[in-house]
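We emphasize that the prediction below concerns an isolated chain of 174 residues; any contacts that depend on oligomerization or on bound cofactors are therefore not represented. The input was used exactly as deposited, without trimming of termini.
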Amino acid sequence: MSRSPEKSRNGRAGSRWPAWNFNHAAALTTAVIALTLFLMVPYQVGTRASLFGRALSGLNPALFPRLVLGLLFLVSIGYLLVSFRLRESNLFGEVDWRGCLNIAVTLACVLAFAVALPLVGFVVSGSSLVVFLVVFYGNRNHFLTAFAGTLVPGAIYFGFTRVLHVSLPEFPFF
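Result of the prediction step, given as a token string:
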């Protein structure tokens, strides 16, 4: 009588490595993107403004992008290590057309926001983005839509320009 080889936890006979799943792919993709963007920071972020050889700001402009991308890389590596213990089925195949439409519309809106940002400023393009997405996703309370559409971009603009002293694109007509 021959015995079949024992199956490992992932179901493959004789395998010492766990089965490849979408968690591994998501973790590795995020790690590669984070590392690539981290290495591109010096070429994408401008140098500090200086006056008579002295920096006008004490912070290096590349500090925040490097910090965020470095943390994203570390989190994705942690996710990769944890993903070897995860036993989940891939439910992306069960997403209906409405979910795909929501993602496509949101991506199109974010791209439109990026195009409109230098033309009409942060507050106008941000308000337009918030109002459109809130209405698209089904909120019919117009007071709440107007409130969120003006308050959220306005608060972000105030926080960045006044508190953090970071310039954002302004409305070009005043």
